[in-house]
Amino acid sequence: MPFSQRNYEWGKPEVKRLFNDLTSLYDSNKEYHMLNFFTLYHDDDNNLRIFDGQQRTVTCMLILAVIAQNLLRQGEGEASTQIKKDFFIQHDALRTNSENQRKLVFDSDADNTFFYKVTDNNFIPDKDYDVKELNNNQKVIYNNLIYTNDLFESFSKKHKDIDLKKLARSILDKTLLVEFDAYEEDIALNMFESLNNTGKNIEKYYVLKNDMVKCLGEAKVKPTWNKIDSALSGLDHKSFLIATATLTKGKTSESKILEHLYSDKKTNNKTDMNQLLDLLLKSSEYFLKICNENQMTNYNNRDLLKYKNYTQIARTN
């Protein structure tokens, strides 16, 4: 998963739609289900980086994980292990690094460890699992795993004596996708931009992140952007960008966010993009304090009380 792309953030409606599309292949006359376009980039080590299709990829793996976990509980250990080998863990006797064995690799080591923990065949989903210490990405992964398990239970009740191996075969054999392979990263990035410009709903926050990486490089952007992500954890990206654009360039709307932020900057100019990156970092720190008064430090009680009154008025209006 490239750093420049958004986190896994699908909600229940998207998960349910994909689950229903895939499981409908079990007992219907449908010849196939089309997952549409995936944009992939072959890096220097010939690994495939997903530039478009991440949400569908992770969700498909969660669905397969739930099927594999239930196969194991039904005593179908061999079939369960086959799914794990084919779609989760790449067994290669020549490789000793466990990270290299994983079919899907997130940008974060912590996310990798968590994802492969909850998708392990022996893992039992628990609705009471303590998610307080998880980051946003991990929370979405776990909540969607729980939701997928609920969907699976409902599907099983409607299909008595369900043949799980047949269900797995119908999904794996009848699901198609259109794969766009790029052997240059710029081509993959440009494909990402073209999808945004042709109406696909890609959040402006990630378009901005993608532009930063394209101009400044991942090594420069990543440390700062991780700080921005940390400050905005649990907060609304759209509101943050609208506030930043409005304070710097005047009142704006969601559709004009990038136009305002880029009004006096060129996206291929490193000086301009460095300045914008610094602005976003400072803005994210202030935005966190605006949204959470507990983050206000070095203020006397009188100023803090005045601040709370102002923010309460703003929220009610």
Summarize the structure.
This protein is mainly alpha-helical. It has helices at residues 12-23, 54-73, 77-87, 109-118, 136-158, 164-174, 185-197, 204-216, 218-231, 237-249, 257-261, 270-291, 301-316; strands at 33-42, 48-52, 175-182.
Report the count of strand segments. Answer: 3
Order of helices and strands: HEEHHHHHEHHHHHHH
Poorly predicted tracts of residues: 313-317
Major sheet description: 3 strands, mixed
Principal-axes geometry comes out as globular
Strand content: 5-15%
Entry keywords:
single chain; 317 residues
Describe the model:
By secondary structure, the chain is mainly alpha-helical. 58% of the residues lie in helices and 7% in strands. It has helices at 12-23, 54-73, 77-87, 109-118, 136-158, 164-174, 185-197, 204-216, 218-231, 237-249, 257-261, 270-291, 301-316; strands spanning 33-42, 48-52, 175-182. Strand 1 and strand 2 (48-52) form a beta hairpin. Helix 2 (54-73) packs across helix 5. It is globular. 25% of the residues are buried. Mean pLDDT is 82; it is low at 313-317.
What is the secondary structure topology, with strand pairs?
Layout: H1 12-23, E1 33-42, E2 48-52, H2 54-73, H3 77-87, H4 109-118, H5 136-158, H6 164-174, E3 175-182, H7 185-197, H8 204-216, H9 218-231, H10 237-249, H11 257-261, H12 270-291, H13 301-316
Parallel strand pairs: 1-3
Antiparallel strand pairs: 1-2
